[in-house]
Amino acid sequence: MTVAALAVLAACGNNSGTATAPTTAASTVDTTAGPAATTAVGFTPKPIAWQACAPEGYDCAFLEVPLNYDKPDGTRIKLAVKRKPAEDQAKRIGSLFFNPGGPGGSGVIALPRLVDDFAPEVRARFDIVSWDPRGVGGSAPLSCDRGAIEFYANDLSSTHPGPEADAAAKKWADLCKTSNGDELPYLGTTDVMKDLEVMRQAVGDEKLTYAGFSYGTLIGLLYADRYPEKTRAIILDGVVDPSLDVKESTIQQSTAVDDAYERFLAWCKVHPGDGENDCPIAADPEGTIKQVIDQARTDPLPGKVGTETVELSTTFVNFAITTATYDSAIWPQIGHAIKDMTLSDPAGLAKLANAYIGAASQSLNAAVNCLDSKAPTGDAFQALVDETALAAPKLGVYNANSVRVCKFWSVPPKPLPTTFRAAGSPPILVWGTTGDNATPYANSVKISGMLENATLVTLEASRHAALGANECVTKIQATYLIDVKVPPADTKC
Fold this sequence. Notes:
alpha/beta; eleven-stranded mixed beta sheet
């Protein structure tokens, strides 16, 4: 998993949304917490105290958890949590926790936008619950994303970018250490998985029902392996494979992105025109994109990314293109955005770049990736960049160079396990999408085969993750979540 392995959020539109949890002390750290009872994670939470919040029909709360689970009586942080209560309380089964992806994605923001991707019968029978993982949004967020923007302002299109790239990566890492150093050792996926176990207890569910998408699959995978006896049903949709090392993961993902980019180019050439669903650069899509990248290298245009207006470097152009590869439904947008850039109008391309950058906290993304896996350094890092560029010559070098920040990260890694069985768990439903560029299909095949009791379902499409793709997906997921019944092996949608 690399820094560029963002989120199902990036495939589901922009990061807009007015629904937030209450804005009281969620971003603060409480160092005066009293003693806690002991459970499997060494901490017993108070029951969640829900309060109505926007939009109408939703509830919000904060849940106090230990910063360091090895010291549950020490520093505490508060997690922002949001739910859509079950519409048929008389037939309510329990809570369905879901994580929309990341690392760095806000579940509080995503919930109102994605809740209708679940079947009506799921919304009727479950409280659908999501949260901002630690370090994100309303949950003690990191405050060093300015360093990410400054790093990505560099030209990362070369296997040997100038020394300013390393200088910016180090500056970013140092800024995170200065502003959030006490939190950085406790932001990895293992701690997020323990937070999920605490949330299960806090809502009063005997066992966990969970749906994880993209990075969210990693949380679910760790949970099922650690707590199979506390698992009721788990969907893993668009699987991250933690058994791959950083180089393997970067090359695999970059190759998938390049493949999706090639599909976009092929589509563009046969859909000429200026209409909403056409490709206005069809005469020479790759040549036109090269023209825009060359301009970004020598005379970048300004565009708004996040809350800042920045020069749209080659890296931001790449992010815009990569966003479009997440879902074929977005392909027309990149064609129009590239054409507009040739006319000195950067608004469309900046919007796509922001959909990628803004889909998740880049600093939290880096913090998790640098903790969960041991990144190579020195000659081994250069080999990662060189080999990725060879395997994925279109866009791969950007992905590889994004790992550069881990060379300077102040916290040593705590690599995740590389094998998982979830021995004794109920059936686990694994989804793989054939044209998925962020979490390649091979991941789902491999992990489903590794687990003791998993069924793989395949979505044949060019998009990231299956959630909400079509009626076939929605029906199978609903049947599983309600009845814990999996479809026959080799089922395809």
